[in-house]
What does this fold into?
Amino acid sequence: MELKGVYTALVTPFKNNKFDEDAFKRLIASQIEGGVNGFVPCGSTGEASTLDYEEHKRVIELTVECAKKTVPVIAGTGSNSTKEAIELTAMAKQIGADMCLLTTPYYNKPTQEGLYRHYRKIAEEVDIPLILYNIPGRTGINMTPETVKRLAEIQGIEGIKEASGSLVQVAEIYRLTKGKFTILSGDDNLFLPMMSVGAVGVISVLSNMLPAKMKMLYKTFLEEKDLEKAKEINTYLMPLFQGIFIETNPIPIKEALYYMDIIEEEFRLPLCAMSETNKTFMKNLLNEYGLLKRA
It folds into this structure.
């Protein structure tokens, strides 16, 4: 499977504290229409940390059903427990996911050797392509390029979602792996510059709202090689890139989708709705882009 392009980090809509399957189906339909290259359910944006096991399974299962093998499903199955990550990864494989995305273990802050052994063990136990996920701002640990190089040599580990915020780190991963290891941007606002130093795609939050625009940014830069046009698209999207992170993800993107009349305004504690000031900001921002459907 060629791993490049725009993969949407899907939100998980809720209604009356339950997974809103109808809203999720509509969201996925809009993504397919927008031309995304794949789906990533049950990641940070999908509020995986507050889903119970059966909900986690159902979100992945429904994504697989809706994708209908037209685009790959990369299921979020990471955990700070290696045993649990193996169980979730095996479950995702069994219900039809094409790949799995595994965040670096959080809170327990393993050493670089611990990170290596964690991912190696999962690759040994479950025969499904794996994508590493480095996001130190959430997990409290940064996976170094040297550790990524070691992991890239393990069969079954296919790439990395890199969200350290460091272009130097991206360039170093590219150098150490000789450009043969797939790098996906984990930061929408760094997608364009990351492509210039080795990334070949993005796992995107904003594509929940504007899948076609994110796909256009990718195609314009990497396929059409039109840097000037890519810069124009990036400049157009930048206020949205910044706006959807005005509070902790996925609060702003879910608020935006609510005001776009796509999902309900519902979160799982400890996440909650945005402040009134930021709600006003979001509505004004969406109105500027012609996206506001309800006040």
